Structure to design on (72 residues):
């Protein structure tokens, strides 16, 4: 029984069980910060952030929890 419980815990916290993350969302801040003066990187970060926040808003609306107005 202990082996089964340990296997369940390992499976739950295993990175392989996590969702796949790609793009800028998977990059650590310490890797991005030294390059923040780059205009192309700034554009990519803005595009990623607006898409990420839009996804959160869509999820919140689908769950009936409202949304945040991103214009403010």
């Amino acid at each position: 029984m202990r082996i089964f419980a340990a296997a369940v815990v390992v499976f739950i916290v295993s990175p392989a069980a996590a969702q796949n993350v790609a793009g800028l969302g998977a990059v650590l801040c310490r890797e991005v910060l030294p390059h923040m003066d780059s205009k192309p990187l700034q554009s990519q970060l803005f595009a990623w952030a607006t898409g990420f926040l839009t996804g959160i808003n869509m999820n919140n609306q689908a769950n009936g929890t409202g949304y945040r107005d991103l214009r403010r």
